[in-house]
Amino acid sequence: MTTEAVTTPTDLITMAGPVAYAKAVQHAQTAAQSAELGDHESARTNAAVAQAFAAIAGAEANARCSALVGRYPEGGWKQHTHPEDKPWWAR
Question: Is the pLDDT of residue 3 over 80?
Fold first, then answer.
């Protein structure tokens, strides 16, 4: 699985759901730490960034689960967004 954002053939930047989820958790923890230290501006900023990454993770998971084989080239959403990933049996 790709751990960073990748460029698709359409030049749109995509991000795997687990990566977005990890970034959401990271920013949520930073927001909590900032709030405990009294840095409310940083806490608000990091909370907003965490929500944005959580929305990306949710949208990617929804698209991955709802995309049917044949809707996207070569067998589905993951192949469309992460064409360089090989199936487990081809690794």
Answer: no
